[in-house]
């Protein structure tokens, strides 16, 4: 399904320069890569949204570790890793 895209002057100039410099073979190739990058970003944002929702649900259900406990555990871990001379 071919379509045209009005990119505006600035983006159209940028696409043209990418093709002229040999970074891409055609305008379509640049646009396909751009859409692939948007798709990838949207997938990552969707995963982040799901993780945030799980975290919020855990907090609502009181399935969390108090920050003080996490801090103490991290301090102990990194003190052990740094050795006695640190």
TrEMBL record:
Q: What are the record keywords, sorted? A: Toxin-antitoxin system
Classification via Pfam families: ParD_antitoxin
UniProt-listed GO biological process terms: regulation of DNA-templated transcription
- InterPro entries cross-referenced by the UniProt entry: ParD, ParD_sf, Ribbon_hlx_hlx
Q: Which family does this protein fall into?
A: Belongs to the ParD antitoxin family.
Name of the protein = Putative addiction module antidote protein, CopG/Arc/MetJ family
Source organism of the structure: Methylorubrum extorquens
